[in-house]
Write a structure and sequence with these properties.
Blueprint lengths: L1 H33 L3 E7 L5 E6 L6 H15 L5 E8 L2 E2 L2 E5 H8 L5 H5 L3 E3 L20 E13 L6 E16 L2 E13 L9 E13 L3 E10 L3 E12 L4 E16 L2 E4 L4 E11 L5 E9 L5 E11 L2 E10 L3 E10 L11 E4 L3 E9 L21 H5 L4 H7 L12
Parallel strand pairs: 2-3, 7-20
Antiparallel strand pairs: 1-2, 3-4, 3-5, 5-6, 7-8, 8-9, 9-10, 10-11, 11-12, 12-13, 13-14, 13-15, 15-16, 16-17, 17-18, 18-19, 19-21
Helix pairs in contact: 1-2
Length: 416
Amino acid sequence: MTIRRTFALFFFIGSALLQAQTDEYEALYGRLAYHGFENLRIGAAADSGLAIAFENRVYRHDLKAAGEILAIASETDSTWRRIYLIPCSRGVARGQIAVDGDAYRSYMAGAMDEKAFAKTLAVGEATEQPRTSVLSWKNRSFLKVDANITIGHQIQLGQYDDRVKLYGELQPGLRSQIWHGTAVQADAFVPLFDEISVFDSGARLGRLGVSQLFRLPHDSYAALQGGIFMPERWGLSGEVAKFWLERRILTGLKLDRTGFFFHTEGKFYYSPMDSLTYTVYAQYYLPGMDMMAGIDYSKYLLGDKGVKFSLRRTFAETDIGLFYAITDYDRFGGVQIRFPLPTQRRMKPARVRLTWPNQYGMTYQATSEAERVEGILQTGLSVDSGFAITEFIRHLTPAHVISSVKGWRKGADSAY
């Protein structure tokens, strides 16, 4: 009888403590959910700090969302000592930002400058993520549908008597998160203006697939995808990546097993999945500025193989990149620019909502001697599944976080 009463008392005390902790965070849960943040998990860290895991599909930039969450947490409790911000996607943690309470309050009050405050931040692996079951997450994002719409374009430079040809298209798409780490997407392409005549005049299917994302130990990630990819491929795609040296170096491997797939005039044309392409890459994130230097070795869809060098500089939400590749077919290089699309704050997630990409990109690529072999030859062509781990984590590197903290101070929205 004594043992039974002891167990009953232990269970009662444990339940009371859990309920008290839940009630303690209830106000913060409610305010964060009201602002549109999803997949919320809040818990006490090992050092008595506060860990907040969240998913942002409201603000264009995740670091702007991080600043908003800090402001909301400060309004709920202005005496917090340390907060661990854990931005997620599909419920999978992308990294962690540790913020000291005293330094944050001094920075917001203007008593500490941006550089001094940035030195107090710690960016790295999500070690303090609250361990709760998926069913207990607050304001879950699953089975909500984003109707995504954007435009695409191509510009082809020709001979002196036909120097420029233009192509424009509408790109509607659907996105939905099914469960923890699982997402489905569908994209179509509708030509609006075509002087190049590479594609048919009617709408065509671009992507249709499902993907699963995993967070692995030691700051590593893996992704597996299956379906219809760009350009005109179907099959499987897998990628693994790992951070090293406090997120200064990222290494990874991407493998694609695909076949040809094309739909036109109500008919499907496809081939077996007999093509294996791959990319082995390494990226170095400079600690002193928001810049990435990368190198990779790839086998492309045409069978060409070679090494590619890349350099990307980020200014807030604008990316400017250069690349140059040497393959056994030719040499190619170019420039890529991506800039943010308005508005900074989007509509709150709903069962169905209309939205658009956070950035719009333009790429110019030039090749050397391999221009035409029995028609147009496209070298350096890779499988585009619509998801890449390198894009998934790129905002959670130390240099990018440090360069973005000026947007956390009130009145600094223009920084974004």
